[in-house]
Amino acid sequence: MDPLALLDIPSLLSDEERDIRTTVERYLTEHVRPHVAEWFEAGALPREIARELGGLGVLGMHLEGYGCAGTSATAYGLACLELEAVDSGIRSFVSVQGSLSMFSIRRYGSEAQRQEWLPRLAAGEAVGCFGLTEPDFGSNPAGMRTRAVRRGGDWVLDGTKTWITNGSWADVATVWANTDEGVRGFLVPRGTPGFTTRDITGKLSMRASVTSELVLDGVRLPDSARLPEARSLGAPLSCLNEARFGIVFGAVGAALDAYRAAADYAGTRVQFDKPIAGFQLTQRKLASMALAVGTGALLALHLARLKDAGRLKPEQISAGKLNNVESAIAVAREARTILGANGISLAYSPLRHANNLESVLTYEGTSEIHALALGHALTGIPAYR
């Protein structure tokens, strides 16, 4: 029995939500899943996947207008679940495109910026990235060294961003910089003089994903490149909360896929004259994993309903990311033990998921930072300051 069916979770979804989930799952099963292990091994992702996912309608699907589908947060979360069930790198591309790049433009950009970029990004005709993290400032973005200085009617940007998903693919980068007036956001198009990218290689995780460094060396931009509604560090942090929400569901997808791989294997792998699914220790592992997947899904669905009602708080997103990612890593690792030595092969997904989830545990706020965010909410004392 599927872990979600065990707790009758599909009955909590509307017909439209089930249809969207099924559509995304069917597309990924036919067009992406057969290739993802090969992409992971090669450490590469084909650029054409951007247009394919745009055609599917998942890029910025939770945003309104400008070619976006305007779905509910719940539907977007279910799409993220199916995307990460295939690979965290695929879900990460969609999250960065829609919840970081597109959301930053939709929420904080000018009408001209929205008209120029959002329809192309939604269709996958253009790719976006989000430049906040720096080599020395990850968990503490307020200390960023990237600076933007006014020069007449223009701005000049200098600095470096790192661990930027979609970086070298990006036709437009949302770059955050300190100014004399506080943190501001800028749209930096590909080809702008002084703006270069370099892919980060040698990764042991998120290999089916493009990860880059952004270098800004005297990049001159007109004031029209500034996001006019972004006036503090709160702007990029609100974008991160949009992306973290998708992770709450995505982690459930990775765990679900790892469970399914282990359960299928246990039903066919024969030792001591019977399938290993018939042994008590294996059943104990399957039961624990199924409960972890089911409870993670219920938590994700509850948070989605709160978001759709306009009541979701940042600390609740932290609770969802912290719980579901840590739980998903544990499930993926346990699933690998059921597969035995075969579990280290790319023919099976659990160890690939476990490796990817190490990145998911770290980006969009480390597990430690989310634990401190919860501690702050519970005690009123900000321990990280």
From TrEMBL:
<dbReference type="InterPro" id="IPR046373">
    <property type="entry name" value="Acyl-CoA_Oxase/DH_mid-dom_sf"/>
</dbReference>
<protein>
    <submittedName>
        <fullName>Glutaryl-CoA dehydrogenase</fullName>
        <ecNumber>1.3.99.7</ecNumber>
    </submittedName>
</protein>
<keyword id="KW-0285">Flavoprotein</keyword>
<dbReference type="GO" id="GO:0050660">
    <property type="term" value="F:flavin adenine dinucleotide binding"/>
</dbReference>
<dbReference type="GO" id="GO:0033539">
    <property type="term" value="P:fatty acid beta-oxidation using acyl-CoA dehydrogenase"/>
</dbReference>
<dbReference type="GO" id="GO:0004361">
    <property type="term" value="F:glutaryl-CoA dehydrogenase activity"/>
</dbReference>
<feature type="domain" description="Acyl-CoA dehydrogenase/oxidase C-terminal">
    <location>
        <begin position="237"/>
        <end position="377"/>
    </location>
</feature>
<dbReference type="InterPro" id="IPR013786">
    <property type="entry name" value="AcylCoA_DH/ox_N"/>
</dbReference>
<keyword id="KW-0274">FAD</keyword>
<dbReference type="GO" id="GO:0000062">
    <property type="term" value="F:fatty-acyl-CoA binding"/>
</dbReference>
<dbReference type="InterPro" id="IPR037069">
    <property type="entry name" value="AcylCoA_DH/ox_N_sf"/>
</dbReference>
<dbReference type="InterPro" id="IPR006091">
    <property type="entry name" value="Acyl-CoA_Oxase/DH_mid-dom"/>
</dbReference>
<keyword id="KW-0809">Transit peptide</keyword>
<dbReference type="GO" id="GO:0046949">
    <property type="term" value="P:fatty-acyl-CoA biosynthetic process"/>
</dbReference>
<dbReference type="InterPro" id="IPR009075">
    <property type="entry name" value="AcylCo_DH/oxidase_C"/>
</dbReference>
<dbReference type="Pfam" id="PF00441">
    <property type="entry name" value="Acyl-CoA_dh_1"/>
</dbReference>
<feature type="domain" description="Acyl-CoA dehydrogenase/oxidase N-terminal">
    <location>
        <begin position="14"/>
        <end position="125"/>
    </location>
</feature>
<keyword id="KW-0560">Oxidoreductase</keyword>
<dbReference type="InterPro" id="IPR052033">
    <property type="entry name" value="Glutaryl-CoA_DH_mitochondrial"/>
</dbReference>
<feature type="domain" description="Acyl-CoA oxidase/dehydrogenase middle">
    <location>
        <begin position="129"/>
        <end position="219"/>
    </location>
</feature>
<dbReference type="Pfam" id="PF02770">
    <property type="entry name" value="Acyl-CoA_dh_M"/>
</dbReference>
<dbReference type="InterPro" id="IPR036250">
    <property type="entry name" value="AcylCo_DH-like_C"/>
</dbReference>
<comment type="similarity">
    <text>Belongs to the acyl-CoA dehydrogenase family.</text>
</comment>
<dbReference type="Pfam" id="PF02771">
    <property type="entry name" value="Acyl-CoA_dh_N"/>
</dbReference>
<dbReference type="InterPro" id="IPR009100">
    <property type="entry name" value="AcylCoA_DH/oxidase_NM_dom_sf"/>
</dbReference>
